[in-house]
Fold this sequence. Notes:
This protein has 268 residues and is an alpha/beta fold. It has 11 helices and 13 strands.
Amino acid sequence: MRRLLPTLLAFGCGRHIEGLDPLAWDAVVVNDVGDAQVLDARSPAAWAAGHVQGAASLHWRELMGRGEDGLWGPLPRETLAALLGARGIRDDRPIVIYGEGPDGGGDDGNVYWALRWLDHPDVRVLNGGMLGWVADGHTPTLSPAPSPTTYIAGHDPSVLATTADVADWDGPIIDVRSAEEYDAGHIPGAVWREWTDVYSGFSVAAEDEVADVWAEVGAVPGSHPVVYCEAGIRAGHSFMMLDAMGIPAANYAGSWSRWTAEDMPIAR
Length: 268
């Protein structure tokens, strides 16, 4: 599998589950949920008002928190695994995630990144999120949440960058916040590309257009970029888009809030 290859090379093992054969972009950005497990990354209230049939609710805020150092970042993998199991998500089936599209602040991408960090080998995103699904003629349902199960987490450390990693990064460092946030202060050497630049309406643009968006800031195959935002949420979405392009990347989870809290240098 395409997304298993880095793990196989680094650790000599990997997991395989039955699902779509990965065909680069089309293996990540999909237009239907098929028979995959479905995760709704919107708020619990939005899920309760109507969702894709069989979807479990997992708001991106539930994946993040403050660690023992008091700084923002992803919750421990064991905590995330327990949360996924409690929501009825298994580790041996494909997962399709959807959110609010460009209005979701990177909601679906943050959940996608967390699952990649847990080394889930088949994760996809529903293009256009709930808006696109409804526009395609589907009707939201009030189906019950899936029954609790057990989720066994793997680990792919290559998708998570620490402050020390970023300070010595040899690939592109990409700030995906707004232009105003970037201008107010950013990591030295970082280039700016707002995370929503990959959208065309409420769906992501065509593959070649998205490739051009990233190529303009040096994110091309073999470049190994790291992405960051304020706390790692919007950066999770950018990580997802790079992953779909077949460009291995890392998310600096904690991002700007962690960088400044650790008194790292600032450029303006």
